[in-house]
Amino acid sequence: VHHSGMIECRAKVRWLSFEEGGRAKPPTGPRYSATARFGKAAEQAAAEPWALVIYIGEDAANVTVSPVVDSAPAELFQSGSHFGLYEGDVKVGEGEIV
Known about the structure:
The chain is mainly β. The protein contains no helices and six strands. The chain has strands at 9-15, 31-39, 50-56, 62-67, 82-87, 90-97.
């Protein structure tokens, strides 16, 4: 169920390999939750971890991301924004908002 006013955007994700310390294989959809840390954002909000819901279709590299909370700053979800995906303290992927 999608709420009005909620941010949803497309992203490209590179899932870290098991050898890189990531998952044994990319998560399968349709819905996957992870924590994102955004880089290079002007505001301190970027340093905070934000819970994301990631909708995965046929291709795990091309996904739709949506923040769990409405208070997530919209500027983090603009095209070109980079983020790391974490399960707990473990980095499992790197993404870019397209």
